[in-house]
Amino acid sequence: MSLTLIYTILVLSVIGVISAVILYLVAQKFKIVEDPRVENVEKVLPGVNCGGCGFPGCHAFAEACVKAETLEGLYCSPGGNACMAEVAKILGKTVAEKDPMIAVVRCSGSFGVRPRTSVYDGVGTCAIAASTYSGDTACSYGCLGLADCVRVCAFDAIHMDEATGLPVVVEEKCTACGKCVTACPKFIIELRKKGPKGRRVFVSCINKDKGAVAIKACKVACIGCGKCVKECPFDAITMENNLAYIDFNKCRLCRKCVPVCPTKAIHETNFPPRKPAEESAGTAA
Amino acid sequence: MFGKKVKTFPQGGIHPEDKKFSDHKQIVDLPLPATVYIPCSQHIGAPAVPVVQPGDKVLVGQLIAQRQGFISANVHSSVSGTVKKMVELPDPEGWKKPSFEIEVSGDEWLDGIDRSPELNMDITATPDEIRAKVTAAGIVGLGGATFPADIKLSIPPGKSAEFLIINGVECEPYLTSDHRLMLEKAEEIIVGIRIALKALGLKKALVGVEANTPDAIEQLKKFSNPYPEIEIVALKVWYPQGGERQLVKALTNREIPPPPRGLPIDVGCVVFNVATCFSIYEAVQKNKPLIDRVVTVTGDSVKDPSNFRVRIGTPIRALIDAAGGLPEDTAKVIRGSVMMGKAIPDISIPITKGAGGIVIIPENEAKRKQKQVCIRCAKCVSVCPLGMEPYLLMTLVEQGRLDEAELEKITNCCECGCCSFTCPSNRPLLDYIRYGKASVLQRMKARQQK
Predict the structure, then answer these.
(1) Structural domain tally of chain A?
(2) Which value does ipTM take for this structure?
(3) Which CATH number fits domain B33-104: 2.60.40.3080, 3.40.980.10, 1.50.10.20, 2.40.50.100?
(4) What is the pTM of this model?
């Protein structure tokens, strides 16, 4: 009886050893050699797999970085310049510094200024609402308020303001991955330069209708009057299809355009309050 | 209904409760409004190019916008008066489109339009003349798809046609405009069918009419008696019997290949609506361009559901006022019909060529019910006239799996809405499928361009 036990154990052990040897040999034969730098690069990446770089995750981005000749065109926006510098150090390549960006919502049509003309009762996503009709206000460009941008954000950096019905970007959390930009069917969200101390000037409207039509739909719409274009000393503002656009690479943050806008469609963020004298001078001009 | 079997399509379909409140109401002319708004684009294809300027005087039937490109249609003034200006007017989906604002003064018609009510039975025009007249008159498919009719009247090279299919099926609940037209203008419709037969050089026309309009069938049969090439076929009262695909299948037992490439001509059929046939008659025999159409204004709480002959460009508000005004409990105004149509965001928009009905839905019926989880009952599968799996398509679109949705042939969907109508969990199946279909079509287009 005890002999049977011993035989069994022996036979099983021998099979085990042989299998182990075969598995070892096979593993050696078909070994996948991965560049160890990929792992190192991946370690310094944020690891959120947001896809903002255009690759399906941080690992794929690390692979692309290692494979690429130069790091041109490869940028991890959640990691920022610091992260990319480390990546460059590991790979012995150089990387150009980029200005930090941030998502900017270019619609200010809150409930108070943009009267609702209809009630949408369908599926609660912007994508479906936008494919169904022009929206629940007379402005066919404005925010639908159904929060597709909020749902795609991996960083909890954008949320809906209940009082206005518009999305709000949390400055500290936004990494400019661009997910909300592609999710918005109305193309309202834009990645703009974050600016020194978060100071930015932008036109918070994308309505391309003629002035009279636009202002009827929304009190804070850009009416294409062109005052800001004339005011800008740096030629940063262009007027196309009744809509002003401020080029953030040319804008020097002088803020002269802000007070001249008759509908207050141009917004400034994080600036210190104006001195009363400066403000009156600005309005007079 | 008749005790004998009537033809139908083989798969799926539903029967929404009939609410034909206006089927006994004669078509009446709506008084001319003070101002009309005529959009340049009332058809599928390229918008027409304006040929009159603000300040110009126009007459009824005068060309105001010229067709451009292969798929397009002329637009004519439906009133006489002065072109005030070009305005950006929302279309039924709210997108702003260039339109003429014309102030009405009097009712002067362009010379050459025969306004007498006499029937003109002799078809003297040659096929080429017929096509030219239909093109000039700006006729589009009046069933709702608004595809330019002249293109359908010429058979593309390499294809051959056998049957002319006439759609007299008004399978939508509420609508009665085609029914009334068949009753009152049956003779004209028969002449229109003969004109289309002549233009196409065909020997057989099949007219499909739903069995719940026996008076229309009788009327059409009476006047088509002398013409053995025209056959009137009663069809089962079943939605979507009036869908092109279903109608061709029911009448000829042929299956149109799946979209986006499949057209009725691929199986030797050309399909026209009865209202389009009537317009073809008017264009060819009376020289009258498409400037008016029959519109049903109806709804559960509408005081006076009616069928109006309306000039194109009349604001929808005027029609509703003529039908007894907007009921107090109105929640939705649907342009077209309840199954296929869409709610409009503004009732000041005008009637265009494709609008066959205005349905006013009261509050208690307009609200969507709470969406619940799918219970896998497969009712949506059993009612889908195309044999697809709506529950699956919806899930794929919801999860963004558009590749798989494409493999499941989401683009075949005809958007009839049977699935959403029948779902016991009130799931918005069609909303998702319609969106998914549009996205997949966009992808396919992008791929082709690459």
Answers:
(1) 2
(2) 0.87
(3) 2.40.50.100
(4) 0.86
